[in-house]
Amino acid sequence: MPDTAPSSAASDDDSRDIAEFLGNWAEAIVSNDVDRMARFTTDDWILVDQPGAISRARFHAVVADGSLQHTSMTHDILGITRLGSVAIVRTHGRTAGTYLGQAIAADEWTTDILVHGADGWRCVLTQLTPRAIPSEET
């Protein structure tokens, strides 16, 4: 069955703007500064991860109290689809840090839904999927 949903690849300008947005957001997260991080998401932003849906308030609370600290974060953009003022961004992300004092690292596929408004891009939803790493054959 053919796909008839309206879809378009992002323009080169959109792609640069979104790449810059993601880079700046990653820097804000690694800064562990909740006020700086808040500029990149809507008030109702949701992070969907293995434990389930995590609200912006909950995510920011564990960063603010030091339970979760990020030391690095990168994103390789795999694709961007622009639908009017909405962009769906698919990346391969890598993150390192600590949670409750224990080292953590993530290698995952990410999907971000961004909206463009008067203040630029903001993320509404982030979906994380752990990247399956093939086991070594014995």
From TrEMBL:
Annotated InterPro entries: DUF4440, NTF2-like_dom_sf
Top-rank taxon, per record: Bacteria
Official protein name in the record: Nuclear transport factor 2 family protein
SUPFAM superfamilies the record matches: NTF2-like (SSF54427)
Domain DUF4440 intervals: 24-123
